[in-house]
TrEMBL record:
It comes from Dokdonella fugitiva. Residues 4-99 form the HTH arsR-type domain. It comes from the Bacteria. This is DNA-binding transcriptional ArsR family regulator. One of its GO terms (biological process) is response to lead ion. One of its GO terms (molecular function) is lead ion binding. Keywords: DNA-binding.
């Protein structure tokens, strides 16, 4: 056994303990869209008193799962990085074989249709977009990364999303979607694609939610890619 083994074992146990408390798990899920939120807002989202939320936030920061950003007199919390978002989404899949009663409720339908996972797209829309990219041979699936192909760059350019060869140098990765149990596109390439969908007015965030709504130009844009929003 190497000297690194006990450290890895204890670190894993520490992370597990941080995630085992429902309020802390709720805080992490509330921040998985990459947003930065104040303690009071996170307390309300987690359903706990401000003092309780403060204690949880301190533990999450100390444990390396959250980062604290101070702006004047205000303090905002965000996930410490995309690796933390990926961890949370992946662990949510641990109940994939749980009884049907644990399935996502109808009230979560907007989240299942389209949402952000840190800075990339998830839900049915994220899965559908990844599948369309693969069907169009728009992606090159390497052993260590997913990259946009020349054909993919042209396709996204013709759709009005990317400029010229934008995206060719970006690396992406597949991420298992915790509600759909299929893959969506993450990493730098997935992040940039999501940014363009917002900038072009295809998608817009819902108020106080990670769920996404269709933007003014979204219906026509998505249909041009072969995706029907009404069927998601």
């Amino acid at each position: 056994m190497t000297s690194a083994a006990p450290t890895s074992r204890h670190r894993l146990a520490e992370i597990g303990a941080l995630l085992a408390e429902p309020a802390r798990a709720g805080i992490l899920l509330a921040l998985i869209d990459g947003s930065a939120r104040p303690a009071g807002e996170l307390a309300a989202l987690a359903g706990v008193a401000p003092a309780t939320a403060s204690a949880h936030l301190q533990r999450l920061v100390a444990g390396g799962l959250l980062a604290l950003h101070a702006q004047g007199r205000h303090r905002y919390f965000r996930l410490a990085g995309e690796d933390v978002a990926h961890l949370v989404e992946t662990l949510a899949l641990a109940g994939a074989h749980a009884p049907a009663a644990a399935a996502v409720s109808p009230a979560d339908t907007p989240l299942r249709r389209a949402r952000t996972c840190y800075r990339h797209l998830a839900g049915r829309l994220g899965v559908a977009l990844f599948e369309r990219l693969r069907e169009r041979d728009a992606l090159e699936l390497g052993s260590d990364a997913i990259r946009l192909s020349a054909a993919g760059a042209r396709w996204l350019h013709d759709a009005g999303l990317f400029d010229d060869d934008e995206g060719l140098a970006l690396a992406g990765r597949s991420c298992v979607d915790w509600t759909e149990r299929r893959f969506h596109l993450a990493g730098a390439l997935g992040n940039r694609l999501a940014e363009r969908l917002f900038e072009r007015g295809w998608l817009r965030p819902r108020r106080d939610s990670r769920a996404l709504a269709l933007g003014a130009r979204g219906d026509a844009g998505l249909r041009a890619l072969g995706i029907d929003w009404t069927r998601l």
